[in-house]
Amino acid sequence: MPAKLTADAQPQMPPHSPPQPRHPHLDTHPTHRFLSVGERRLYPLTIDSKPLFDHYVATQQFVSADLSFANNFIWLTHMSAFYQVVEECLCLFSLSGERLNMLLPPIGASGQQTAALEQCFAAMEAYNGPSHEGLIDFVQGDWAALLQHDSRWRLEPHHPDYLYRTSDLIELRGNSYKSKRGEINQFLRHYPQATIESLDPERHGAGVRELLHHWLRARLQHAEGEELADLLASTELERQGIERSLRHFEPLRLSGLCLLIDGRIEGFTFGERVNPRVASILVEKTNFAISGAAQFLFREFCKRFSDCDFINVGDDLGLENMRRVKMSYRPVMFAEKYTLRRIRIN
User: Fold this and answer.
1) Least C-beta-crowded within 10 Å: which of 32, 117, 293, 304?
2) pLDDT at residue 345 in the model
């Protein structure tokens, strides 16, 4: 039997938590809910898990947005997330259908991470059975150096995060940013009445949802066939993630802006400070028909994080258009990441 996962953290579920999806391996208890993997217990990741998550992440030096609680929590609308403390490392699992994987490698003391990794893969293999191998989706670059000489592991490159020097995005100096300055100036000439307000989910929620509705319709307008099916799936996941963000905006400690023209919301964005050096922008949406609105809103929001050295805007999902836009802002570094698999020996 694989080594048992330790159970250092067993928080009570809050009294008004939303019901968890039914699953044959999901047990209930008067005060606890957990996913059973043999004798192991994995606990649901809820908004109340944030202090524990942040405690472990605070010990890490990182620039990747994937190590943010909010970044994991808001996009997990299509799967269930569970955690456990293993070998003094926080381990974050995902359950989609009947398959158990991990979203992040073990987070904790460097001397304990490889031992935790072994136990986590043993747990995934015990749950999934011989038909599905376990994997870790978002493994940061420092793990590549840790495992590169170990033939039991396979690291597959993932799309990296784009990082920019914050001062570059605020000042937009030099020829490299000439087109950005021009787009912003054109926007301000055409819309001198435009205003910026801090995003308040209660006050701006209806306007944000209206803009999101129109943005989604515009995005889907010219898609067809397989592209339409993929866009429908991805845009619905994005809509759900934004809804979850608005519901938990304050406890997630998110910060955001709304762009208003004649009292109507024509753009919104939000993100967070993931550590003292790095801020992360999670979402930005503007009216496609208003030229320069996206560039103006992006610059104004970057000013919120002027005390951070870098701003992370996530990866490009492998989409060429998104890659061109993100490259046009001149990234100063990329946060490399990988998918990790264990090589099975028959």
Assistant:
1) 32
2) 64
